[in-house]
Amino acid sequence: MSKKTLVEVKNLSVHFPVHGGVFSKRVASVKAVDGISFQIERKQIVGMVGESGCGKTTVGRAMINILRHVAPEVEIMGNIEYHFDDNIVDFAQLRPREMRQYRSRVQMIFQDPYASLNPRMTVAQIISEPLQLHTNMSRKEQTERVGWLLDKVGLQPEQARRYPHEFSGGQRQRVGIARALATNPDLIICDEPVSALDVSIQAQVINLMMDLQDEFDVSYLFIAHDLSVVEHISDKIAVMYLGDMAEYGDAQEVYHHPKHPYSKALLSAVPLPDPTRKNRERIVLKGDVPTPLNKPSGCAFRTRCPIAIASCAESKPVFEEQGKNHFVACPVVKS
Ligand SMILES: Nc1ncnc2c1ncn2[C@@H]1O[C@H](COP(=O)(O)OP(=O)(O)OP(=O)(O)O)[C@@H](O)[C@H]1O
Ligand code: SF4
Ligand SMILES: [Mg+2]
Predict the structure, then answer these.
(1) What does 165-213 look like in DSSP terms, one character per residue?
(2) How would residue 297 be classed by pLDDT, with cut points 50, 70 and 90?
(3) Best mutation site among 18, 26, 57, 244 for ligand 1 pocket (most ligand atoms within 8 Å of CB)
(4) Ligand 3 centre and the CA of 281: distance in Å?
(5) Can you give the pLDDT at residue 275?
(6) 228-266: per-residue pLDDT in tens?
(7) Could you tell me if 181 and 150 are in contact, meaning their C-beta atoms sit under 8 angstroms apart?
(8) Contact at 8 Å (CB) between 134 and 183?
(9) With b meaning 16 or more CB within 10 Å and e meaning fewer, what string describes 296-306?
(10) What are phi and psi of 179, to 5 degrees?
(11) How far apart are CA 27 and CA 204, in angstroms?
(12) CA–CA separation, 125 vs 173, rounded Å?
């Protein structure tokens, strides 16, 4: 742990109970996140990738501590330790009331800018809501801050009186970014913030987010399906598979020298023409991702892994350092 540490996620598991039968008894658990560890430093961008359903959004929701609102019976185990000022605050253990004072410090930008903005509120109301809840700003100060933020995200301060439906998808996401930045947070969870936008404007929004990250000194957990998006913007890359973390390390290292067979397969599928990867063979994974209701024993990836051996079924691989700051959950590639 260094002075720059913002948050340490330690052995985080998130299980959603599944009920069934006449008495609606608990019959199983969805192991959406199954004991992952990683950390984010101040002013750092961590890109998180993995196939649909592997637990990325659940990790993000746990880190902003909104899972209990979404699913009251959720079981959260492990620790999510934020280093705020001189205190360490564990969001995994905080009750909603205790959480109030920290709400402004971690924000989220959602995938769908159409669904995530209240259609009955003006842009001014949307952006000033966190200011009303978490600061002592007067109305005048709030109005000034809203205008300033709109300018920062490339919109006109006069557009504050408009409603979300009057904006394009890209503009709406800019409003979402302004709202997330309003309280000067330490961390923003960016949950696939451009995947619902036209390809032609994705780069504009990502570039804006990078400029703002620099200006506001904020950290991002940037969730994406596509490794080619996160390579260019991330300091670190985390690769998730079925609730587990397969690999975590410096972005260039993971991108150019992936060790885990799943990361190798994901990277081999990146469609962008890139001269440095000309000779990389395309690895096509067989089968579908198993359900987190019934994870394979041992290594969860073994049913699709091209280099699996018998012992992979026996115990869950230890997530260990296999190079400087490069963590991998596969003993086979180590040996
Ligand atoms: N509120 C919930 N109740 C029950 N199961 C849930 C809930 N939220 C998520 N899950 C399950 O947890 C697993 C992980 O879901 P999550 O949304 O975190 O994946 P994801 O990686 O974000 O997927 P995508 O790329 O499609 O957004 C899935 O099997 C999902 O069905
Ligand atoms: S532990 Fe075995 S199944 Fe899992 S990634 Fe490594 S080789 Fe493949
Ligand atoms: Mg998701």
Answers:
(1) GGS-HHHHHHHHHHHHHTT--SEEEEESTTTTS-HHHHHHHHHHHHHHH
(2) very high
(3) 57
(4) 28
(5) 57
(6) 888 889 999 999 999 999 999 999 999 999 999 999 999
(7) no
(8) yes
(9) eebbbbbbbbe
(10) -65, -45
(11) 46
(12) 16
Residue whose structure tokens are 């978490």: 134
Å from CA of 51 to ligand 3 middle: 9
What is the DSSP secondary structure assignment for residue 162, as one 8-state letter?
A: S
Q: Is 226 helix (H, G, I), strand (E, B) or coil?
A: coil
Which residue owns the Cα nearest ligand 1 atom 1?
71
List all residues 6 or more positions away from 237 whose beta carbon is below 8 Å from its beta carbon: 46, 47, 48, 49, 227, 230, 231, 247, 248, 249, 250, 251, 254, 255
Owner of token pair 């003993």? 331
Residue ranges covered by each domain of the chain = 5-334
Q: Is the overall model pTM greater than 0.70, yes or no?
A: yes
Ligand 2 contacts (CB < 6 A) are 260-261, 299, 301-302, 305, 307-308, 312, 317, 330, 332
* Nearest-10 crossing angle of helices 139-152, 169-181: 130
Instruction: Indicate if ligand 1 lies below 6 Å from the C-beta of 292.
Output: yes
CATH no. for 5-334 = 3.40.50.300
Length of the chain: 335
Collapsing DSSP to helix, strand or coil, 45 comes out as: strand
74 CA → ligand 2 middle, Å? 29
Give bridge partners of residue 88 from the DSSP assignment.
83
Q: What single-letter amino acid sits at 33?
A: V
Arithmetic mean of pLDDT, 290-305: 94
Short-list 118, 111, 112, CA closest to 165? 118
Burial class from Cβ neighbours inside 10 Å (0-12, 13-18, 19+) for residue 267 reads buried
CA distance 149 to 179: 8
Is any atom of ligand 1 closer than 6 Å to the C-beta of 242? no
